[in-house]
Every structure is written in structure tokens, then in C-alpha cells.
Design a protein that fits this description.
111 residues, alpha+beta, Pemi-like Protein 1, Chain: D
């Protein structure tokens, strides 16, 4: 297993891809599974993130769905989630794109 030490050469996602991780989990009464905190941290998963689920026979695979946008809404406020600094122009473009998507959704709901 790679530890990812040595000057922070691995991002959390790259580190998680290098990790060997095996554990046993149990379904609760509602059919839910808890993803261990160490794995959530390594994959940078936070409440509200979306995962795709695939199955093949008795194998189930969960895959994080990553937004193309580095801005995500957190408690009603747009928050930057990224590994690099972004310019004001990039922020403006991302917000404009999100506003346009919202406006299209709102127009579609009224139709």
C-alpha cells in the first residue's frame, strides 16, 4: 500500500487509487452502507456527493461522480473545491453557467 507520504506527491484521489482497501460492512435496517471515514477522506467525499452504483453478479462497485465545476453549493453558498487557485474570470464563467442552467430549469418548470 502506498502511503502517499513524501512531500504531498499524491492528491487525495490519486492516493485513494493507490490504496489497497478492503473491509467488511453491514447493511443497516434501511439497506444503507456506511463508507468508512478514512476512505471518504481519501476520496474527498462529503455529504451530498453523488455516487454511481454498478453491479455484476455479486460484485457492487461505487464510483464518485465528480462535477466538472469546481464550485459546489454548500448550505446555500457557492464554495470553491479544487486543488488550484482559479481566476476571477473562471469564477465568473462558472457562476454564469450555473445561473443559465438554473434559469433553463426554471423556464422548463413553468412550461
Amino acid at each position: 500500500m502506498s502511503t502517499g507520504q513524501g512531500g504531498g506527491a499524491f492528491s487525495g484521489i490519486e492516493h485513494a487509487k493507490e490504496m489497497a482497501f478492503a473491509t467488511t460492512v453491514t447493511l443497516d435496517q434501511a439497506g444503507r452502507v456506511l463508507i468508512p471515514k478514512s476512505l471518504r477522506d481519501a476520496l474527498r467525499l462529503v455529504p451530498g456527493d453523488t455516487l454511481s452504483m454498478e453491479f455484476d453478479g455479486d460484485r457492487v462497485t461505487l464510483r464518485a461522480i465528480r462535477s466538472a465545476s469546481v464550485l459546489r453549493k454548500k448550505r446555500g453558498i457557492w464554495v470553491f473545491h479544487g486543488d488550484r487557485k482559479i481566476s476571477a474570470t473562471e469564477t465568473d464563467r462558472a457562476l454564469e453557467s450555473l445561473r443559465q442552467e438554473r434559469d433553463q430549469e426554471m423556464r422548463g418548470a413553468k412550461a
